[in-house]
Amino acid sequence: MMKGFKKWRLFALLTALSIFLAGCGQQELSTLLPAGEVASDQFFLLLWSSGIMLFVILVVVIIYVVALIRFRRSKLGEDHIPEQVEGSSTLELVWTVIPILLVLLLAVPTVYYTYKLGNVSAMGEVDEDGNAENLVVDVTAKLYWWEFDYPQLGVTTAQELIVPLDEKVYFNLVAADVKHSFWIPAVGGKLDNNVENVNKFYLSFEKDSRDLDEGVFFGKCAELCGPSHALMDFKVKTLPRDEFDDWVLAMQDTEAVTADADSADQGEALFAESCIACHAVSGAGDPDYMGVEHAGAVGPNLTTFGDRNRVAGFMDHDEESLKNWIEDTQKYKPGNLMPSFTDFTDEEMDALTGYLMGLTIEE
């Protein structure tokens, strides 16, 4: 008897721990800690539907327990015949009306928020001078990285999405190879990136990412897309509008910047010889969108590589990790399209990684 009681006590402890741990999470990655209007709306739907389901479970369990206690054979005897309620109009009305009400309670807010969150009619609005009133970002998902193009601003970056605080940001989502899915758990989403059509939606960013432990929100691919699907991450930085405008100007100032094969900087010369065909070091322009590729658009744009906090989206942002990545890309992200470079001497590798870490626009 005591042994059985101990098992139940352990079960109760694990249940309590599960409840408490469910409330834990990283602000930059948790859907349970919403950081924007869309995330808050989705969190409300989560709580609302979970509450209704919990209510149903509790009612069923209570009825079940009451029936077990009140109508047990030891109390009523072997010959007891319960009251026959077959054909009861009252009961039939109850178990018809209640499910309909529950479905309505779930359906009405779900339909409302589906249309609200899917409304992108303001995406193309312009002011009296013809300037766009809302920021639009074209997101292209590739194996296994993300490109972010700001067509109204003439700016392109990769692996890091930079957005203004307290504004709606509209997104055009496409994929360059296979189906992917764009998701920022703490801010909202998710929506598929398809090869054959463009999906549109918006998000609002209402928390300064600099207040987070790592200074960024984490974005994920939420559609199984290949062997490195779990490593297809991106980061999101939120900035006050004036700082966002400064970032845009700094990116625009990199127009026509490139690496020179004749540079006295050994790292820059090596980059120009080995990497420039796939990686741009200018953040200005529209190098690749909707399948139209230009020079430097095959791989991620590296204009702000030194400002990022991850190598290849998930590795520590230091020269040692960068060296490991360059020397054996398939070991760290299987199936990606970047070739490995094993012919560099230690001196050349130091020079190349030093050059890449120096690609920065932040002061």
List strands and helices in order, with pairings.
Layout: H1 2-22, H2 37-70, H3 73-76, H4 89-117, E1 135-142, E2 145-150, E3 155-158, E4 160-164, E5 168-175, E6 180-184, E7 188-193, E8 199-204, E9 217-221, E10 233-239, H5 241-252, H6 266-274, E11 288-289, E12 292-293, E13 310-311, E14 315-316, H7 319-327, H8 329-332, H9 346-357
Parallel strand pairs: 1-5, 4-10
Antiparallel strand pairs: 1-2, 2-3, 5-8, 6-7, 6-9, 9-10, 11-12, 13-14
Task: Provide a descriptive summary of the structure in words.
By secondary structure, this protein is of the alpha+beta class. It is built from 9 helices and 14 strands. The chain has a 5-stranded mixed β-sheet with strand order 3-2-1-5-8. Strands 4-10-9-6-7 form a 5-stranded mixed β-sheet. It has a two-stranded antiparallel sheet with strand order 11-12. Strand 6 and strand 7 (188-193) form a beta hairpin. Helix 2 packs antiparallel against helix 4 and helix 6 packs across helix 9 (346-357). The longest helix has 34 residues, at 37-70. Mean pLDDT is 89; it is low at 288-296.
